[in-house]
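Kindly go through one protein, given below as sequence and tokens. The question is how this chain folds according to its tokens.

***
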Amino acid sequence: MPFKKKIASAKRPTVTVQTKKMTDGECCMPKHHRCGKFFLVILLLVNIALTSLVAIRQSRIESMRVGGDDNYKMLQQVFQSEGFQAQQRQQIQQAMQLYQVPVTDDVAETPAQ
């Protein structure tokens, strides 16, 4: 009867974790992470404020492009006129025919003046 060798069991490494109870004033994040998040929030707020300012002042910017408020009002009247819209519609239909874009029913029903 052969002898059985007893295999020595290898000791497994142990891991010790130390925990610390935090008080109400403490935070688990290091200070530099909190500053980074604060900076991102401030940057986001500034971005929203600037975007809002540009959106609010858009008509003023457009009026400066055309030479003042009077010209801007006249240009709005031109864009809203039936003749201008009919001319634009006709040019768009010609471009669609030129580039062989299929005309939908909505476009075909609209009369060109």
Remarks:
- The mean pLDDT is 81.
- The CA atoms of residues 45 and 76 lie 34 Å apart.
- DSSP finds five helices and no strands in the chain.
